[in-house]
Design brief:
The complex is a heterotrimer of chains A (769), B (342) and C (203). Chain A is 30% helix and 16% strand. Chain A is of the alpha/beta class. Helices cover 74% and strands 1% of the residues of chain B. In chain B, 55% of the residues are buried. In chain B, strands 1-2 form a two-stranded antiparallel ribbon. The longest helix of chain B is centred in the C-terminal third of the chain and has 31 residues. In chain B, helix 1 crosses helix 14 and helix 2 crosses helix 10. Helix content of chain C is 20%, strand content 21%. Chain C has six helices and nine strands. A three-stranded mixed sheet of chain C has the order 8-1-9. In chain C, strands 2-3 form a two-stranded antiparallel ribbon. Chain C starts with a strand and ends in a 16-residue tail after the last strand. The chains are: A alpha/beta (769), B mainly alpha (342), C alpha+beta (203). Chains in contact: A-C, B-C.
Chain lengths: 769, 342, 203
């Protein structure tokens, strides 16, 4: 490894220098944190071990108290940790998910042994047998169908991409379903990138320096990407920054904000246009930035000329004075003003334009990568273990034609991105015959009913998972994975408490893999060996593999543990677009996406109305699902602080705390809830605690109702998703609201599944009205 | 929980078993008092109906305290600790500790009275339903033995009256059940230091009189004018009970917990029970003295035998059940004051 | 009083995440099943769109004149003179639930055995522990209460009352000193709200 620049100006040497200084500081911090410098987890000695939490996959640092038998007893946060604290010298904690890692490690709901399907039945087998069985089945598959008909799905697996590398470069599988775009926030990510912000960067605000934050379609105090977000947002507010939440629901962030704008779902684009109208009218925009670094301002100015706050008030249900005040406040504080947004504005085709309108505001006030505004975070590079060992990848997928992506594919979006919702069709057509799921479950993500059916039609299905579900039970091979406390962890960033320094965090396994499970990396190692590629995978275990990633930094996981699991790198600056340009590959930020006119031609055709390239208002239902007389409520859904996606619904503590948060713990029910305004509930004879059916044109499911004043009438919020059919909730309690989603309900551009659906809600077993 | 800014507590710590305990404790106390009054009226002729009533009363008292004891032990997580209360219940500031001593003392003294009224001088030769213990003893063959023991242990008339009156203390002392609830400041439905204990002791006495009388009419066919007197006392007691209950419910105030409790009682989950309770009181107040007078005046007629007598017994029992339901409603309808967050 | 321990809670920093509830359960080995030494409650007020909601993390208040101590017939509950922590001796507890009624905050919790367990300001680990523990201020390595240790929003703190008063606002200090029955100093959550424990006003 050379000392060349890696990442954003972080050289190996500067990282070492910082680590050395960090070691001194961390040493002191280590004493106060009560860390045991010797991390021996010898059975028989009480001690301390370390971890990096993987519940929401953000690696908050963790101290693990062990008893004499080596069993984990308590978990605690680590002070100063980049994800688990508000920064240097501040307290580190673990959130309820992290704390539930203790229950997760020892949960009896775990898959305890490998399973393979023999004569139609799943049987528990040894790892050796499971690996050789899988190897044989892969070989048969290749002969009978060809690897082009195999699709790999990886969610938040901890093998660091090793499974995908193995399947792609050694087995030759050319189909990999990406995670964020089709499932997560594609309708925001794509326009965000096309405009130049970078899709993911709509999340990160420079909290330590900000004066005004619009929390828009996101709830960082509930669904923080690492606890640093919640801590820094509260600190910013307490320091005097203004926090405004724009959301149909009175979220935790709304409760703590200076202002809550209770906006009608999918009308955010109108609010954004009106804000631009005011900002331009009052001359509060960043003229220099607009002049020198943007394209399409004239089209933008014209587009918002008649979008007054009064006009927007009618669309959004908001007070025009409030709109004006927020617009002025935001612009006056800029560039120390930011917008944090995420899935709330990213899961409907209608948001393709809505997101564009919102992102445009950042360009308007020049708040991109400036102190206090939206931040472009730099990171630290990690090594490549194959390169470390001088191993050449055979690139077996080269020349193989992927079935699920590319503009020629029947199952891809307008711009060639894989569409998760179309895969059941591909399976029915025989174009996809085999799949692997690693820490990912499509059934709660979209077209739920169609997926459950399609899984049964697969010829070969492999899954790596930790908990049982009806999805896992469809597999031909189940590789049970160890959970976070049982395996070494490594990651870097990026987003975290240190807004201008990259960092690395990692730890060794705190306890042995429970039952007969293995860390994901070791599953790949075993499979690779069984399939004849052992030479190219020389690592003995997961720790050895991860240490190779750290090699360029002269660190090992053990070293990291001695430094309280993290090291922080050198500083990087702001305004990186001056040198590097924007995420669209241009030197300019684009208000107007006229250079991608083809996309909008396609959208216009689909909508039957003109979708223009500049910021524009489109009514909800233009591209997405419409709310009508038959299905008069708009379904949205959310995560809660107790669960991350669908990975923890097997744990009793979070299930109970969720019920307590809803004040419904007395009910014999540990599923999810649908939140309704009293106006909508009363009309339907529904009270908190009633079981209700939510139904769309395409499907229905049953869950418990919660009536609250904290939601815009006409909205039904499923809180959280990840329950019901196909989930790991032990009795499949709750409702899988994606059974209501039809396969053709997705964003044509990004492939993002449409989660904003017109529904009706009825008390189960009775007449609603 | 509506959008009121309140945080409600779970409550619901005591239920049916505790209601049974509270009811039988004061029933025991009231029955003891009924026994003393009956004896005062009939001590000159031990074969008389007042003596039969006294026997039933003291038997009721001891059985009631026994049931109360079993009910409360069954409610505890450590019943053995409850049984060993002189060693374990050391906090005399607690009404549960005080009450346990009162109940056990009452049980002991009622037991003693029951023994002396069934055996020895006061019991020998007794016939009819009230002599049930004698009949049981005869079956086992220890009648004579017990008679001897009773005579040997019972003090003379003065001494007897001293013991009897001393027994009044724990008997009326069953008012402690009211204090147990009244000192709980978190429950507006209970927190009335005079009304609630008064309600409990008055209704308890009424229930003791009513049950003792009902048993005597049913099993000893009593028609003596003491029937009218006792039935009138029961009626008066129930009237006072109704009044005290009414006063209590009106003294709740209109705080959130009080309103929640009242909502359950008035048109809510407890409204059926409250209706039953009220009906029981009204019926018993009106019908008991009237039917008692009719029964006393006409006990030989067929109508009297087959309609008035059962009707009177039923009327008295309605009152007893209503008095139990009061405890039930007060326990199940109890709501703790919420915490104010706004 | 000065050496006595208590809590400080700032409602403007509580994000309702329940980390405190689970941290407590982890430390004391209390599994799920409605025994929560520490609960996070939510109170909502008003009508859409003028609606407010606040979170309130509550456990035992370690009250000055603890009503639970007064009503317990078995003398199982004691407020320690040394550090002011109210502890329960589960060997003496008979499971009568009187303390459950007496407590204005719902602190006593009852387990499958029917015995009472509750917050002991982490004097020691486990239900009913800490009865014979040395005073908090004399312990060599006193446990930082797990709830305060893991509070994500930095809303909950525990320690000697005088230290906690130092971090409180004047308003919170005054309210506490006017009525120091509960050993919890509570910070209001912004304009127009008042976070308190007055059961009198609730009537």
């Amino acid at each position: 490894m050379s000392d060349a620049e890696r990442g954003d100006g972080i050289t190996r040497r500067s990282l070492l220098k910082t680590s050395a200084a960090g070691a001194v500081a961390a040493g002191l911090a280590g004493c106060t944190a009560g860390a045991n410098p010797s991390n021996e987890t010898i059975a028989g000695a009480a001690g301390t071990a370390y971890g990096n939490c993987w519940m929401c996959h953000k690696l908050c640092g963790m101290e693990v108290t062990l008893n004499r038998e080596g069993r984990a007893q308590e978990l605690h946060g680590i002070d100063g940790h980049p994800r688990g604290s508000a920064g240097e010298g501040t307290k580190g904690t673990l959130c309820p998910k992290g704390l539930s890692q203790l229950e997760k490690a020892y949960s009896p709901q775990r898959i305890k042994k490998p399973h393979v399907r023999k004569n139609g039945e799943l049987q528990a087998v040894s790892w050796d047998e499971a690996f050789s069985y899988a190897a044989d089945r892969f070989e048969e598959f290749e002969t009978e169908h060809g690897v082009e008909k195999f699709v790999n799905w990886e969610g938040w697996g901890t093998a660091g991409g090793l499974f995908e590398t193995f399947l792609k470069d050694f087995v030759g599988v050319p189909n990999h379903m990406p995670h964020p775009t089709p499932t997560c926030f594609g309708s925001m990510a794509v326009p965000g990138t096309l405009m130049g912000l970078g899709g993911g960067n709509i999340r990160w605000v420079d909290y330590p320096d900000t004066e005004y934050v619009l929390v828009w379609g996101r709830d960082p105090l509930e669904t923080f990407a690492g606890q640093w977000e919640a801590k820094q947002l509260l600190d910013a507010r307490d320091r005097g920054a203004t926090v405004v939440t724009i959301d149909p629901v009175l979220t935790e962030t709304a409760k703590q904000s200076d202002r809550w704008l209770p906006i009608k779902p999918r009308t955010d684009g109108a609010l954004a246009l009106a804000m631009a109208n005011v900002i331009i009218e009052e001359g509060l925009y960043d003229e220099a930035f607009v002049e020198n670094y943007t394209h399409g301002f004239e089209a933008y100015r014209e587009a918002v000329a008649d979008k007054t706050p009064e006009w927007a008030a009618e669309k959004t249900g908001l007070d025009p004075e409030a709109i004006r005040e927020v617009a002025v406040g935001f612009a006056e504080a800029a560039p120390s003003a930011g917008i944090t947004s995420w899935t709330g504005l990213g899961q409907s085709p209608d948001f393709f334009k809505g997101a564009q309108n919102v992102v445009a505001l950042l360009g308007l006030v020049g708040a991109i990568d400036r102190p206090g505004g939206n931040r472009w975070l730099g990171g630290v590079g990690l090594g490549n273990p194959f390169e470390e060992r001088g191993i050449e990848l055979p690139h077996a997928a080269k020349g193989k034609k992927p079935v699920i992506k590319g503009k020629g594919s029947d199952y891809a979006s307008m711009i060639g991105k894989p569409v998760q919702n179309k895969i059941p069709e591909a399976i029915r057509n025989g174009d996809v015959q085999g799949m692997s799921f690693y820490y990912r479950n499509p059934v709660p993500s979209g077209a739920g009913d169609e997926w459950m059916e399609a899984l049964g039609e697969l010829d070969f299905f492999v899954t790596i998972d930790a908990f049982w579900s009806d999805v896992a039970r469809e597999a031909d091979v189940i590789f049970p994975e160890a959970t976070q406390l049982e395996k070494p962890m490594l990651g870097k960033g990026g987003a975290g408490a240190y807004q201008n320094r990259g960092w690395i965090t990692g730890s060794r396994a705190a306890i042995e893999p429970q039952w007969d499970t293995k860390p994901g990396i070791e599953i790949v190692l075993g499979l690779a060996e069984a399939m004849g590629h052992g030479d190219a995978f020389p690592w003995n275990d997961a720790e050895e593999y991860l240490n190779d990633k750290l090699a360029p930094h002269d660190l090992t996981l053990e070293d990291l543990e001695k430094r309280d699991t993290y090291v922080v790198a050198g500083e990087y600056g702001y305004e990186k677009w001056k040198k590097k340009g924007f995420a669209n590959g241009s030197e300019k930020f684009w208000f107007d996406l006229d250079k991608k006119a083809k996309i909008f031609k396609g959208l216009s055709k689909k909508a039957g109305t003109e979708i223009r390239t500049e910021p524009q208002w489109i009514e909800p239902g233009t591209l997405g699902d419409a709310v009508d007389d038959e299905y008069p409520l708009e379904m949205i859904d959310a995560r809660t602080v107790y669960f991350s996606h669908g990975g923890d619904q097997a744990l009793s503590n979070p299930l109970e705390q969720l019920a307590e948060a809803m004040n419904l713990e007395e009910e014999d029910y540990r599923g999810n809830y649908v939140l309704l305004n009293p106006k909508d509930a009363e009309k339907r004879g529904i009270e908190s605690g009633d079981m209700v059916t939510i139904e769309s044109r395409n499907g229905s499911t049953e869950l418990m109702a919660k009536v609250t004043e904290g939601i815009v009438p006409g909205t039904a919020n499923v809180e959280p998703y990840g329950f019901g059919e196909g989930s790991i909730q032990p009795d499949e309690e709750g409702g899988n609201n994606m059974q209501l989603n039809a396969p053709d309900q997705y964003d044509d551009v990004s492939g993002q599944i449409d989660r904003h659906l017109g529904i009706e809600v009825r008390k189960t077993g009775g007449d609603a009205r | 929980m509506s959008a009121s800014g309140y945080v409600w507590l779970e409550g619901g710590h005591w239920g049916l078993l505790t209601a049974v305990y509270l009811f039988f404790a004061t029933l025991g106390g009231g029955a003891y008092l009924a026994g003393l009054v009956a004896y005062a009226l009939g001590r000159d002729d031990r074969r008389s109906e007042p003596m039969a009533l006294a026997r039933w009363a003291f038997l009721t008292a001891v059985v009631a305290t026994g049931i109360a004891g079993i009910a409360i032990l069954a409610h505890l997580a450590r019943p053995l600790s409850g049984l060993l209360f002189p060693l374990t219940l050391t906090e005399f500031g607690s009404w549960i500790t005080r009450g346990t001593w009162i109940l056990v003392t009452l049980g002991a003294l009622a037991g003693l009275q029951a023994f002396w009224f069934h055996f020895g001088r006061l019991g020998r030769g007794a016939e009819g339903g009230s002599a049930v213990l004698r009949k049981l003893a005869a079956v086992v063959g220890v009648e004579g033995l017990l008679d001897g023991a009773a005579d040997a242990t019972r003090p003379g008339e003065t001494g007897f009256w001293i013991v009897a009156v001393l027994g009044l203390l724990p008997a009326l002392g069953t008012v402690y059940t009211g204090f147990e609830l009244a000192v709980v400041e978190t429950v507006p439905l209970w927190n009335h230091p005079t009304l609630l204990p008064a309600l409990f002791v008055v209704s308890g006495v009424a229930s003791g009189f009513a049950l003792a009388l009902a048993l005597t009419i049913a099993f000893d066919d009593a028609t003596d004018r003491l029937v009218v007197g006792f039935a009138s006392a029961v009626s008066l007691g129930l009237l006072l009970t109704g009044g005290l209950l009414w006063a209590l419910l009106n003294a709740l105030g209109d705080g959130p917990a009080a309103s929640e409790s009242m909502a359950q009682l008035d048109g809510g989950s407890l409204s059926a029970v409250v209706t039953l309770l009220a009906a029981g009181i009204v019926v018993s107040v009106v019908a008991s003295p009237i039917l008692a007078w009719l029964w006393h005046a006409r006990d030989e007629t067929t109508v009297a035998r087959w309609v008035v007598r059962p009707g009177l017994v039923a009327s008295l029992l309605f009152g007893v059940v209503a008095i139990f339901l009061i405890r039930y409603v007060l326990l199940i309808g109890a709501v703790q004051s919420p915490n104010v967050v706004f | 009083m000065s050496q006595e321990w208590g809590f400080y809670f700032d409602a403007s920093r509580c994000i309702g995440c329940h980390a405190c509830s689970i941290a407590c359960k982890n430390r004391h080995g209390v599994e799920s099943g409605k025994v929560d030494w520490r609960r996070v409650e939510r109170a909502q007020k008003g009508e859409f769109p003028d609606v407010q909601e606040r979170n309130f993390s509550v456990s035992c208040m370690h009250c000055k004149d603890a009503p639970c101590e007064k009503v317990c017939p078995a003398d199982a509950i004691k407020k320690r003179d040394s550090d002011g922590i109210v502890v329960v001796d589960r060997e003496a507890c008979i499971g009568c639930h009187y303390c459950g009624w007496a407590c204005p905050y719902g602190a006593p919790q009852y387990d499958e055995k029917g015995l009472m367990q509750k917050c002991n300001l982490c004097l020691d680990k486990g239900p009913g522990s800490g009865v014979d523990a040395p005073p908090k201020q004399e312990q060599e390595d006193p446990l930082t209460p797990a709830c305060a240790d893991e509070c994500v929003g930095d809303a909950l703190h525990a320690g000697p009352i005088e230290d906690l008063l130092d971090m409180a606002s004047e308003d919170a200090q005054n309210r506490f000193l006017q009525d120091d029955q509960c050993h919890v100093i509570v910070e209001s959550a912004g304009e127009g709200s008042e976070t308190g424990n007055e059961t009198e006003t609730a009537d």
